[in-house]
Design a protein that fits this description.
Belongs to the UPF0251 family. The protein contains three helices and three strands; from the N terminus they run E-E-H-H-H-E. By secondary structure, the protein is α+β, with helices and mostly antiparallel strands. Strands 1-3-2 form a three-stranded mixed beta sheet.
């Protein structure tokens, strides 16, 4: 049985729930889900420029967990940009 996720502090909400390439109908696009905690990790580290230790404390997780979230989120964003996929935000609740 998998260990349950520790609740994470998430302060920001995405402006949109979907980012997709222009001119291609949603039905023709592969969707890449980006969890709220992954988006928050990106916001804190990449947008606000926080150190990972500080961002981890803000989210209430370990530094290693935050590093894993950032790595997974960056992979999903790059996959969406390079391969023309729709990036969808989703709740972790």
């Amino acid at each position: 049985m998998a260990r349950p996720k520790i609740p994470r502090n998430i302060c920001g909400q995405p402006a949109n729930i979907c980012f997709k390439p222009n001119g291609i109908p949603m039905t023709q696009l592969e969707q890449v889900p980006l969890a709220e905690d992954e988006m928050e990790a990106l916001r804190l580290v990449d947008l606000l420029g926080m150190q990972q230790q500080e961002a981890a404390k803000s989210m209430g997780v370990s530094r290693q967990t935050l590093a894993n979230l950032v790595k997974a989120a960056r992979l999903k964003v790059v996959d969406s940009l390079i391969n023309g996929k729709a990036l969808m935000t989703k709740s972790i609740n």
